[in-house]
Fold:
Amino acid sequence: MQRGKLIVFEGINGCGKGTQITKFVHELFKDRTRTFFLTREPNYFDDNGREARRILSSDGDPYQSQLEALRYFSLNRITHNGIFRPMLDLGINAISDRYYDSTFAFQHAQGVSYEEIAKLNRDSRISVPDLTLLIDAPVDVAFERLGKRSDDRRKFDNDYAFMKKVRQNYLDLPNILPGLMDDKSIVIINGEGSVDDVAERIMQEYKTRFDEK
Structure:
C-alpha cells in the first residue's frame, strides 16, 4: 500500500487559504477511490491546542506571548502527529490548514530565532510535509479581504507592519527550511487573481509534485 501524503496549506491571514483548501478537497474528493483527513493547527486535540487558540483570539500586542505560544503550538503538533501519522500509514492523505511553517513565520516575527523553532520541532521528531502550498498575497490585498469578513479578526490581523514581517518570513522559508528541517516541500502559489485562477495553480502544482494526470 502506498503511503499517504501530508499536504499543508500556508500563508498570511487573508491570503485565501481557507477558500482554496475547500476547493482543493472538493476537487480531489470527486475521485471516489480517495480518502482524506482534513485537519488544522492549532486544533482541539489537546489542552495545548486550546491554549494556542486562546492566544490567537485574544486582543493585545502581537509581539507578546511568543515563547508561550511557541510551546503550545509545538506540543499540540506532537499530539497532532500522533493522530494523522497512522492514517498516512494506511494510505490516507492528510491535508492540514497550517503546520510548523506558521510557527516559523509568526513566532520569528515575534523575535524567536529560526534555530530555536527548528530545534523544538526536530526534537519532537514530527513529520515533514510532502507538499506545502504557500499561498502568497501582498499584505494590502490580504487586509482588504480581511476587512470584508463578518467574523472577529484576530490580533495579528490588525498590525500591518507585523504582517509584512510574517509575509517576508514565509517567502524566506524555501531557502531556510531545507537546512533546518530537511524540508524541500514548499511551493509558492501566486494568491492574486480570481479564486478559480488560484485553485488551478494549486491543482497544477499538486499534479506536478505527485505526477498525476
